[in-house]
Every structure is written in structure tokens, then in C-alpha cells.
Specification:
single chain, alpha/beta, four-stranded antiparallel beta sheet, 6 helices, 10 strands
């Protein structure tokens, strides 16, 4: 699996947000895009994930074009999932329910989905909290639960937009370890962050400034 963006530019009226960006990430690799607010890092993630059409340039996944100036807006390719700093959990449901509901949405039988959800929770170190209500989890645990939930979709590529923006250093470290585990299992990770410690845990770090990637 290889995700590639070639000569990507995005303009909103007279404002250029991305300016001729090239990027490529292979299977099981992790890339951190760092930069200040307004530098274009979230826009770059959205273009690579097929959420925003570039003004120019193309994005390909395994050589198949998934985004370009003429692509239909809002069509997200299969195998691409997202997490953000806002977890959007079902706070009144258990951790296993939060993950299992996603598995059932993929067509799994309830019992199969329950077992699969437990396996996903184990992958992020939350197996012992499977029955606990989501609202009782710490910040780091909630973000790891959000990661477990997207694992229910068996992602090929995971985009993470400021995933530790609301976490303290200890919780951020928990999330970083979880990311390392899932990339080791073959999921490609692309994250946008201003959190340099978590960026440094990725295989590659690139800095974006005024829409240009160094």
C-alpha cells in the first residue's frame, strides 16, 4: 500500500493554503506533519484523505487516483479512517459497546462483534476496562478507545488530526505507544500535530509552513 500526493495545491479565493506539496507514505509507515496553527497541516490531511478536492495535483492510493480537482467532493475511499482531538464517544455506553457498535455497522453478528471489539480493546491496552462506561475513562484512555473504535473498520490508512491536542504529557505518551503498535501491525499512520514529542515517535517528520512542506 502506498499513499502519494503529487504537486498538491489548495486555494480558497485569493488565499493559498497548500502550495505544490509532494508526499508519499508506504504500508506500515508513520508520518507526522508538524507546524503552527494555520500552516496548512489539517488541510493537507483532508486532501490526502479525500475530504477536500485539491485545486491542483492528485492523490493516489496503490496507484489508483482517489482525489484531484475533478473528483466528486466528499467520497472517502474504503480503508481510510480518522480520529481527531474530539473523541465523539458514546459516553453512557461501555468501552466494548463503543467499539462493538462500529463492528456491527460493518455487518458482524452481535456476538462476533463483541469478541472482535474485545480484541480491538486489547490492542490498545484497554481490555480490562471493556465493561466500564466511557465517561469514566481518563483523557488518554478515551483517545485510545477512539483508536480502538476505528480499528473495528480494519483501516489501511489512519489519519489523526491533533489527536493529543487536549491531553497531558502522560496521556499523549499512551497514545503514541498505541500508534506505534498499530503501525507495527501494518496500518499506515499520517498525523498532523504541534506536539513535538508525539511527532518524534513517528518514522518520518515533515514540517509545513505557509502551505509548503519541508
Amino acid at each position: 500500500m502506498r499513499l502519494t500526493g503529487i504537486d498538491l495545491s489548495v486555494s480558497f479565493g485569493p488565499r493559498t493554503v497548500l502550495d505544490g506539496v509532494d508526499v508519499a507514505v508506504g504500508v506500515g509507515q508513520s508520518l507526522a506533519i508538524v507546524g503552527p496553527s494555520g500552516s496548512g497541516k489539517s488541510t493537507l490531511l483532508a486532501v490526502l484523505g479525500g475530504l477536500i478536492r485539491p485545486t491542483s495535483g492528485v492523490v493516489t492510493l496503490d496507484g489508483v487516483r482517489i482525489a484531484g480537482p475533478s473528483r466528486i467532493f466528499g467520497v472517502v475511499p474504503a480503508g481510510i479512517t480518522w480520529i481527531t482531538q474530539t473523541t465523539y464517544l458514546l459516553d453512557d455506553r461501555s468501552a466494548v459497546d463503543n467499539v462493538g457498535i462500529g463492528a456491527m455497522a460493518r455487518g458482524m453478528h452481535r456476538l462476533e462483534a463483541f469478541d472482535f471489539a474485545l480484541a480491538c480493546l486489547a490492542r490498545v491496552g484497554l481490555h480490562e476496562r471493556a465493561r466500564d462506561c466511557a465517561r469514566t475513562l481518563s483523557g488518554g484512555e478515551r483517545q485510545r478507545l477512539a483508536i480502538a473504535r476505528v480499528l473495528a473498520y480494519r483501516p489501511r490508512v489512519l489519519f489523526a488530526d491533533e489527536p493529543t491536542g487536549q491531553l497531558d504529557a502522560a496521556a499523549s505518551a499512551e497514545v503514541a505507544r498505541t500508534f506505534a503498535d498499530i503501525t507495527a501491525a501494518g496500518t499506515t499512520l499520517i498525523l498532523a500535530t504541534h506536539d513535538l514529542p508525539i511527532a518524534e515517535t513517528c518514522m518520518t517528520t515533515r514540517r509545513i509552513q505557509r502551505g509548503r512542506l519541508a
